[in-house]
Write a structure and sequence with these properties.
This protein is an alpha/beta fold. Among the domains are: 158 residues, Rossmann fold, CATH 3.40.50.261; 113 residues, ATP-grasp fold, A domain (Dna Ligase, domain 1, 2-Layer Sandwich); 114 residues, 2-Layer Sandwich (D-amino Acid Aminotransferase, Chain A, domain 1). It contains 25 helices and 30 strands. It has a seven-stranded mixed sheet, with helices on both faces. Strand 10, helix 6 and strand 11 form a beta-alpha-beta unit. Helix 11 packs across helix 17, helix 15 packs parallel to helix 16 and helix 23 crosses helix 25. It is flat, with a radius of gyration of 31 Å. The two termini are 39 Å apart.
């Protein structure tokens, strides 16, 4: 729980200053003005009193025992300050000072040494290069931020100190309470994983909000996030989404998995709600902190203007939620209460001259309706509108059984009402679309909590066969596994693979063709040629021995001309596959989160539209099906315009087998099955082409 850091009884400020505007002054002033009830120990060798408190040249002279040390001295003095702090009993150290790994190699070395020194003594280190931390419930502002928030249920962890100050300013303007705020800085020791673990167990925290630029340890992060999200929502705004991947990818899967795909998959796997903007991060957090979770996706809309009601209805449908059909009894009850011109359908239009009573009647009717899971209330400032009294009417008629999100649209005229809503614990948004987006986040999290237990299927496979194939390739440093060997790997994991073999000469190709049977496919076998068709290395529908012989001679000649330095291992002859829907299945090993599975439809959908989805392994059957359903082209698998559905379960099973293969063999860095041809239910699905890339593990 990081008690010494978050709830210390005694805090030292090393670098306390008498000069306003100095970091050491602001930290000490914040501790005092925030009402910290523990012992505050200022340290400054040139002063004997600072802000009315006795000041000491060093901790040893003070004779004080401390729990937390906040260090704000020049970089060259930080090492000694850490040593002194630990000798004085500190179990947590916050280094505000900058000038470490963010400035170069020398700073990085010092930072690493300080972290190791603290770890060896079981002392936790926050920072360096950070703003500090706040615990509003503990009346502790151990930061140099301007605002001390009132106690509330939102806890913030941020990799950016500047963003922390913006958050505090936003919370102050919105009169919103926070539980804790932590600026992580360089994360030399304490990171998002530690804080997810601590805040997940913190009774004062109702929702965890994070701004992250990077994640220290992928596996540990996912485990901590899964534990935290099991009890409370976690909203993360992750920046740096457009950076190119750090490695050259040889597979379709690797090239499609950009820098952000691993984070997106990890968040999805662990139940984290991802915010795409700073604004959305707080829209979501406000809704989670103030309202109960919805029991379903059915939304009722109450409005005093037709246009905004339509805007909200469009946003609801586009987000995947449902503009519910109100019960007949609800329409009857509304008709008795509202003017004849009002709409008693959904949206419920209480008309532009609506007084607070009409809003109350509509809100009560919606709350009474069992077909309503959540309610969005919209107000526009018309001549007859009383925003403040309407806000009070909404608050006094809210039962806290279903989430109610409000959108008071406008500026100065609606400001008194908006302030009343926030004070009443009702989230308010300037536009209906933002309210709907926040509600969608709540629905997603509620559904994640209701998901079935994760059950990973382990299939009976032939691991030894795969071990032999991988060992042979690693021993000869042939890390691009050719199609023939890749398909042997798939056979060992019970994929249906067409009969095929390698042929080194035209005569061998004809002999193989006669054994396998026509029609046939012929593909060049070379570890140096990744995209075979681009080099003239693929020939399909060979139906006679003469066609096989001619194709062999022509293919070898063309490849020798176009890729004279490529190593040629002959050609791969195999039976042509039957017709079906072509999809691509794959895996790439993310450096942070490990094996990441990929699914997409073949052809234009993957090459042009990039309509693919990723998930972190291991994967359950339900997660595999969700992967398919989240693609834009999923309907093509279920059957359109009278076509029959393909065997979706076969695709889900294949993804699970790839998941198991990737978990069993960390040497596999990338793989594609492209295409994986899927027939109708009852037909065999076939791995028509395959490619595997290996990497040599350290120590091997």
């Amino acid at each position: 729980m990081l008690e010494a850091l978050l709830k210390p009884d005694a805090v030292a400020v090393i670098g306390a200053s008498r000069s306003p505007g100095k970091v050491g002054y602001e930290i000490l002033a914040n501790l005092i003005e925030g009402g910290f009830e523990g012992d505050i120990v200022p340290i400054n060798p040139t002063s004997n009193k600072v802000l009315g408190l006795p000041c000491y040249p060093d901790l040893k002279t003070s004779g004080k025992k401390i729990d937390l040390s906040v260090i704000a001295v020049p970089t060259k003095f930080v090492r000694q300050a850490v040593v002194d702090s630990i000798e004085a009993g500190a179990k947590a150290v916050t280094i505000i000072t900058a000038g470490f790994k963010e400035v170069g190699e020398e700073g990085a070395k010092l930072e690493s040494e300080l972290a190791a020194y603290c770890t060896a003594r079981e002392v936790r280190l926050l920072g360096p290069n950070c703003l500090g931390l706040i615990n509003a419930h503990h009346k502790m502002n151990a930061s140099f931020a301007k605002h001390m928030p009132k106690p509330g249920g939102i806890t913030i962890m941020s990799q950016s100190g500047a963003l922390c100050t913006a958050i505090l300013d936003w919370a102050s303007e919105r009169h919103l309470g926070l539980a804790k705020l932590v600026s992580m800085g360089n994360k030399a020791d304490l990171s998002e994983t530690d804080f997810l673990t601590a805040f997940g167990k913190d009774d004062e925290t109702k929702v965890i909000v994070g701004y992250l630029e990077s994640i220290v340890a992928g596996d540990a992060f996912i485990k901590a996030a899964e534990m935290a999200t099991a009890s409370k929502p976690v909203v993360i705004f992750k920046s740096g989404v457009t950076a190119a991947g750090g490695k050259a990818a040889s597979s379709h899967t690797g090239s499609l998995a950009g820098a952000d795909a691993g984070y997106a998959a990890a968040f999805k796997r662990s139940g984290i709600i991802r915010a795409d903007t700073f604004e959305a991060m707080f829209d979501f957090a406000t809704a989670f902190a103030m309202q109960p979770l919805p029991k379903g996706r059915r939304v009722a809309i109450i409005t005093n203007a037709g246009g905004p009601g339509i805007m909200a209805a469009d946003a609801v449908e586009l987000s995947g939620l449902e503009v519910t059909t109100l019960a007949g009894s609800t329409a009857t009850a509304l008709a008795k209460k509202l003017p004849a011109a009002a709409s008693v359908g959904n949206p419920i239009d209480v008309l532009g001259d609506a007084d607070p009573g009409r809003y109350a009647d509509a809100l009560n009717a919606a709350q009474d309706d069992d077909s309503v899971d959540a309610i969005i209330v919209i107000l526009t400032p018309q001549a007859m509108t009383n925003p403040l009294e309407t806000a009070r009417a909404i608050e006094s008629n809210t039962r806290n059984e279903k989430p109610i999100l409000v959108s008071f649209m406008g500026g100065a005229d609606v400001t008194p009402g908006r302030e009343e809503l926030v004070a009443s614990n009702l989230p308010d948004y300037p536009a209906p679309e933002r309210a709907v987006a926040a509600l969608k986040a709540m629905v997603d999290y509620a559904e994640w909590l209701r998901r079935p237990p994760r059950v990973i299927t382990r299939f009976p496979v032939n691991r030894r066969r795969v071990e032999r194939i991988i060992r042979r390739h690693v021993r000869t440093n042939e890390l691009q596994v050719g199609e023939a060997a890749a398909k042997d790997v798939l056979r060992a994991y019970d994929f249906n693979v067409p009969a095929g073999t390698i042929a080194l000469t035209a005569d061998q190709a004809v002999e193989a063709a006669e054994k396998i049977g026509y029609p046939l496919a012929m593909k060049i076998a070379s570890p140096d040629i990744i995209h075979k068709s681009d080099m003239g290395g693929v020939k399909l529908n060979l139906a006679t021995a003469d066609a096989v012989r001619d194709a062999f001679d022509l293919m070898i000649m063309r490849i020798q001309q176009r890729a004279p330095d490529a190593k040629l291992n002959g050609v791969y002859i195999e039976k042509m596959c039957g017709r079906g829907r072509e999809v691509i299945l794959g895996m790439t090993r993310d450096p942070q989160f490990g094996p990441m599975l990929m699914f997409g439809l073949g052809g234009i959908f993957v090459e042009v539209m990039k309509d693919v989805t990723f998930h972190i392994a291991p994967i359950t059957n339900e997660e595999a099906l969700q992967m398919l359903q989240t693609t834009r082209s999923f309907e093509l698998l279920t059957g359109v315009r009278g076509q029959a559905s393909v065997d979706i379960d076969a695709i889900a099973t294949a993804l699970q087998r790839i998941s198991q293969l990737a978990q069993d063999f960390p040497e596999i860095s990338e793989m594609d099955i492209n295409p994986f041809i899927v027939g109708h239910v009852g037909q065999d699905s076939v791995a028509a082409d395959a490619r595997i890339t290996l990497s040599v593990r350290e120590g091997k």
